[in-house]
Amino acid sequence: MRVIFLEDVPNVASTGEVKEVKAGYACNYLLPKRLAVAATPQEMERIASIRRAGQERRLKEEQGMKALAERLESTGVTLKVRAGPNGKLYGAVTNVMIAQELSILIEGEVDRRNVLLEEPLHELGTHQVTVRLHPQITATVTVTVEPL
Hints:
The relative contact order is 0.14. Strands 4-9-8-6 form a 4-stranded mixed β-sheet. A 3-stranded antiparallel β-sheet has the order 2-1-3, with no helix packed on it. 36% of the residues lie in helices and 32% in strands. The protein is built from 4 helices and 9 strands, in the order E-E-H-E-H-H-E-E-H-E-E-E-E. It folds into 2 domains: 2-45, Ribosomal protein L9, N-terminal domain (Ribosomal Protein L9, domain 1, 3-Layer(aba) Sandwich); 65-147, Roll (Ribosomal Protein L9, domain 2).
């Protein structure tokens, strides 16, 4: 079934693209959620306006994410955890903990998979952590781990 995408669908298509998808996917997911419409001749006539609206939305979202990235880089995150006398932590600071603290800080949702840690933090101190906010935008956040 040929559809025109009205919204960006990650790993599938962006706004304004015309693609052939399985009928079940279109009828059960894309069409009811208004993510796409059937590619009829009437809809094909308005494809230019759909693409323009999608580009404007992406630009606005990208500008908002750039501003958020600057704000995160300037503030940083402080986590208080239990630690031993030599600076080793009882446990570890994970991407889940950092994502929760960032969510509180920005008053929005930060997915744990977007906090890019090679391995959990096991020591007190200051660490640099990369956070993916948008496919093209990342922020380097300063995470300070302090004893409780």
